[in-house]
User: Fold this.
Amino acid sequence: MSAHPPAFAARATSVGGSPVREILALTERPGVISFAGGLPAPELFDTEGLRAAYDAAFAASAARALQYSTTEGAPELRAATAARVTARGLATDADDVLITTGSQQALSLITSTLVEPGDVVLVENPTYLAALQAFGLAGARVVPVPCDEDGLLPDALADIITRERPKLLYTVPTFQNPTGRTLPAARRAAVAEIAGRLGLWLVEDDPYSDLRYEGRHLPWLAAHAGAEDRTALLGSFSKVMAPGLRLGWLRAPAGLRRAAVVAKQAADLHTSTVDQLAAAHYLAAADLDDHVAAVRAAYRVRRDALLAGLREALPQGSTWNRPEGGMFIWARLPEGHDATALLKSAVAHDVAFVPGAPFYTGTPDPRTLRLSFTTHTAQEIAVGVERLGRALDR
Ligand code: PMP
Assistant:
């Protein structure tokens, strides 16, 4: 005789796995040209530079590289990160920065620090899937803010704050995942002003802004007067160095950062020492900006190849955007089409994308899809969009 152990926590069963991951698994078979992933191009990793950085970390002190370290992060990586943020126009000290295990962890830490079950979290609609999972696991009530093709609508945001009294707004203002959208400067100022006036935390998730192919950098929300004491800015080394390092960072006001440090102690004590030290050696020895410039040049060509191909592949009446950077193009098929149904036919033609539906809170737009252009050459992209056209009977 044995008694059942008690049930899982409700939160563990209320949040499903990511359907994007399931689709990615399906498209990993050889020969598929996939626009589904959101992965950096592996052939562009600075493998030799990173190998040398790991060697340097071991040579400097293997005892240190292999030992436990502080929760806040390696001082030299915090300092180098702060210097990069400062160079982008937001004065930042090493002490303002917490190194995290990917920026995904920063999202979890901020969520467990701020969100109680039942609290309202505002999001763009559609938004990043793993953020929806983090908020779902915390028991948040996720409320979408109306958006247009440039992102959040500030007037609608102000109305919803007054009505819902949310804890925080989660936003990816630059080259958003999944839409590639970028919030214009005037709207950034408006969002910052509204957050200050109506009382709201801002979680500004920015893994993509370094991947800008044209146009000028826009200021972070965190850089606006009125937002500096209420904005958690999340950054990542995944798209500029390598995602396998699992290195991200959080820049937050002191009180919020200290609470996040306690949450991190409970989560993983600290981010891998050897990876942090290797990244710090890399930043000291190599020119990350030079490396990112080369990555940007390659991605820009790939973006343009996808844009050119979509004109031929997608049916009349389809629309799509032209992001100035990032990894994603967002498309919308004409009336009567369903991107999830199309995916089956696309996979049969050895091409894949992600339907937009899972990224929505509430009613999804079934005609939308996300296409990533980073992991294939321009030639492969041309073949891929031609297959997509055939899957669509073009
Ligand atoms: N935020 C957004 C919007 C993302 O697209 C991603 C990665 N796909 C992350 C956060 C997490 O990135 P990482 O944990 O690798 O830093």
Observations:
- Residues 38, 102-104, 128, 172, 177, 205, 207, 236, 238, 243, 248 surround 4'-deoxy-4'-aminopyridoxal-5'-phosphate (CB under 6 Å).
